[in-house]
Design goal:
alpha/beta; Rossmann fold; 225 residues
């Protein structure tokens, strides 16, 4: 089986994503705002230059702009058509094709945000990808990686039935942490997130007490270069 080409999904990405996630939430804004709020709450330093690595059509970019009004917000991806959509949505942000322009951004970003990207990277290429990301950051830069939790059966079902996840290989937190260590990145924190779907939204305030329970729909790893 080949790798997914996100150019094929750029025009309809939002509609497909909403359909896939309808069990958990009626739209995609909840997930984007949720993740950005986690980053803002856990940050050690106030970032001035923020990159979303694998930004796709830019669904998280607006929330990063709102959460960090004093920062320069950038997004990169390998999908040119997705970047075109993102530029239309967020003209104030900077976007670039990571495959062609990584060398121009070495050491630039003090915060890198990655949401559900690495499961599309072949296991044997993950260290190289993390080293590339590390090269875009200065010493003591902060890195936040969100990934699907393979221990959650609902998550596995959503990924298995998603048309643009046909190449996904879910990553166990322990494996991702080991890969980050091999890439010379230091782990700061790990949390499980997204426990309650919309029909149980009244329980969402207690998620902050469940971060060590490996049943959340996703997990986040905070790291430092």
């Amino acid at each position: 089986m080949g790798k997914v080409n996100f150019d094929d999904f750029a025009a309809d990405y939002d509609k497909l994503l909403i359909k896939q996630l309808r069990f958990f939430e009626s739209g995609t804004d909840y997930f984007a705002q949720y993740k950005v709020s986690i980053v803002k709450n856990l940050l050690i330093r106030n970032p001035l230059r923020i990159l979303e690595f694998g930004c796709g059509v830019g669904n998280n970019i607006g929330h990063l702009i709102n959460a960090f009004p004093g920062a320069t917000i950038s997004g990169c991806d390998v999908s040119i058509k997705s970047l075109d959509v993102a530029k239309t949505k967020h003209p104030s942000a900077e976007f670039f094709n990571i495959a062609d322009h990584a060398a121009s951004f070495v050491g630039r970003f003090d915060l890198v945000f990655i949401a559900n990207v690495l499961h599309h990277v072949l296991p044997e290429q993950r260290i190289a990808t993390l080293l590339l990301i590390k090269s875009l950051m200065p010493k003591a830069g902060e890195l936040f990686i969100f990934e699907h939790n393979p221990y959650n059966p609902v998550t596995r079902h959503i990924v298995r039935t998603c048309p643009f996840d046909f190449d996904a290989e879910l990553i166990k937190p322990k494996r991702l942490i080991a890969t980050l260590n091999k890439a010379g990145v230091s782990i700061v924190n790990k949390q499980y997130i997204l426990f309650f779907p919309n029909f149980l939204r009244k329980l969402r305030p207690i998620e902050q007490y469940l971060t060590s329970v490996p049943l959340g729909g996703q997990y986040v790893i905070q790291a430092s270069t």
